[in-house]
Amino acid sequence: MCSGRVDLDFILRAFSNGQDGVFIGGCKLGECNYVTHGNYDALSNTYLCKKIMKSIGLNPERLRIQFMSGADGNLLAEVTNEFTQTIRELGPLGTSEGIDRNTLAFKLEAARKLVPYIRLVERERLRIPVKSKEAYHGFFMGDEFNRLYDELIGNKLAISQIMLLLKEKPLSTGHISGILGLSPSAVSKHMNVSSMHGLVRYDEGQKCYRLA
Asked: How far apart are CA 180 and CA 163, in angstroms?
């Protein structure tokens, strides 16, 4: 299967199922077997997923992509052994990050709910016209990508987590802030946006937010 078929949700689902690390192998960049250059899509998804992982508190080193040819058996063995050692040093998913299993499952669920939206954003705002490793690295490691991520994905991810919390029970701004590690002002901003979209309402009597 082309590495470009490795959807963002496949990666997040692997972590949701308890995998400690995810390794993606693809054709060498510029040597696509299908002339679709799907390996660049895989590279883009990897950069995006690493950013999401960092946002929810997971070590991005738990995800790796490597490009090689069918003749690179020695390289595959070397890289696989290296990645396996990295994951062993990090330990079981969430332990080195200090995230308990329930919190991790909750954060991954919130991220997975955004995947259809992220696919659309990636097509419309995060596509890179020049297909080269240097161009992709320069964009995804640059300030412009960080700005776009915060604007288009980071805020949506925070709201997705808030919606899951409110699905369980109504909560105040302070409680949401404490659970998610966000500042009260950031929570208030997200609640105002959610309220304008008819997603939540403020209960004056209980002094808390609940789903609309």
From this structure: 12
